[in-house]
Amino acid sequence: MGYVIEVERLKKAYGEVIAVDEVSFAVEEGEIFGILGPNGAGKTTAVECLQGLRRPDAGRLRVLGLDPQRGERELRGRIGSQLQESSLPDRIRVWEALDLFASLSPKAADWEGLIGQWGLASKRNASFSSLSGGQRQRLFVALALVNNPEVVFLDEMTTGLDPASRRVAWDLVAAIRERGTTVVLVTHFMDEAERLCDRLAVFDSGHVVAMGRPQDLINEYAPQVLVRFSADRADLGFLEELAQVDSVKRSRNRVEVSGSGPVLALVAAALVERGIVPTDLRAERASLEDVFLALTGGRFEEEAAT
Which fold has domain 3-215? Predict the structure, then answer.
């Protein structure tokens, strides 16, 4: 598989504000590539440059072998785009919007099928102005897919969707990839990125601060594992001697062992060797949220609180 997107030292500024600063990454054919970061990190600016919607100040960009600025017309017919901020005429109906977009593409998908897939069947004849925020979001994703794109850009796809609709959307994104379409998913939802993305780039303040597979990033930046269990035995000092264990904390009969690597297996084996077989032994691993907090020094947490 080759690269369908190549970004080398992309830079974009708005006056004195640098939105994207020397960003480089590449996206492989057929993968779901995530761009993860808080609001204002430069995610949307980067993907808008890739789609030819903004002119970069510097850098080399290639999407499907085309320069987004010089090959914009050809590129438009080969990519799909769901933008973070989009709108349609208030009176246009759901089916009319899909039919209109399909009429502009020589290789349009079955838009009737897209209505059903994205949960819009009951709103087929509804006007755009009457749709809820979540329904509008689903319509924009369906419109991004109506031309059977080779690459689709989904920017904050599940914003405004309820938890059940988010899970349905995740399944549909996975199905998009299964039919061979490359997906660039821009999100600030950690669980979404961890669930869907084959690889991802973590943006912060206009820079890519980390890139790789979700589990590899967790292993590198947040390797800690917590093993918890109940035990009445007073002396558990032998656990502190295990190579992968960093600390052992105890509160009454509750024990928390902090470590890395295969610490769960090592703790379990040491306990069983001494005749201690807790029924509630379990491990809690770090997540992408822990990775992001480690990389950004807690700025994401502060934004969420705000």
Answer: Rossmann fold (3.40.50)
**What fold, for 224-285?**
Alpha-Beta Plaits (3.30.70)
- Would you say the CATH fold of 224-285 matches that of 3-215? no
* φ and ψ of 285, to 5 deg: -95, 160
pLDDT per residue as tens, the chain (306 positions): 579 999 999 999 999 999 999 999 999 999 999 999 888 889 999 999 999 999 999 999 999 999 999 988 888 889 988 876 678 999 999 999 999 988 887 777 788 888 988 889 999 999 999 998 778 888 888 888 888 899 999 988 887 778 887 888 888 888 888 888 999 999 888 889 999 999 999 999 999 999 999 999 988 888 889 999 999 876 899 999 998 999 999 988 899 999 988 999 999 999 999 999 999 999 988 888 888 888 876 554 444 444
- CA 273 to CA 65: how far, in whole Å? 60
Residues 6+ apart with CB under 8 A from 261: 223, 225, 244
> Which letter does DSSP use for residue 153 in this model?
E
For the chain, what are the domain ranges?
3-215, 224-285
